[in-house]
Specification:
By secondary structure, the chain is an all-alpha fold. The chain has a domain of 97 residues. The chain is built from 5 helices and no strands. Helix 2 packs antiparallel against helix 3 and helix 2 crosses helix 4. It starts with 8 loop residues before the first helix and ends in an 8-residue tail after the last helix.
């Protein structure tokens, strides 16, 4: 034992797990364990935000480039909705993110940036805030302009 968190996080994690299982609680690196537990939650939130940004970017492309709509975009929209639904079912506390304005602002900003790059349209061509309610965004039947 004795691998430091900073030197090799994988070896450190294995050592910490072994210490927990063997009941050697006083030998645990409590501060870093707490950080890692918090990071798990943040990672789940980032994953949800990433999937939402991809979904929103494709909804923007769907709305702003109707002549380019195709099965690929539709498939991506369905896939992201399924993945978002799955993440929320497996981790119900993530649903609170959908009500967090800061979380939405970040997801929307990422979506507009992606849509701008992928369409060649200026960032300013897109709305400053998401124009669709959350329920519509995650509704399997909703497609802007349909």
């Amino acid at each position: 034992m004795g691998t430091t968190y900073e030197k090799d996080i994988v070896a450190w994690a294995q050592e910490q797990a072994q210490l927990l299982r063997s009941g050697q609680l006083t030998a645990l690196d409590i501060e870093h364990i707490a950080e890692e537990i918090e990071d798990v939650g943040k990672s789940e939130q980032r994953e949800l935000a990433n999937r939402m940004a991809i979904l929103l970017a494709h909804l923007l492309k769907w709305e702003y480039q109707p002549d380019l709509r195709g099965s690929s975009w539709e498939s991506t929209i369905h896939t992201q909705r399924n993945n978002i639904d799955r993440r929320i079912r497996k981790t119900p506390s993530l649903k609170a993110s959908l009500d967090d304005p800061d979380w939405w602002a970040d997801a929307w900003d990422d979506a507009v940036e992606a849509a701008s790059k992928e369409t060649g349209m200026a960032y300013t061509c897109f709305p400053e805030l998401c124009p669709w309610p959350t329920d519509a965004v995650i509704d399997r039947e909703f497609f802007p302009g349909r």
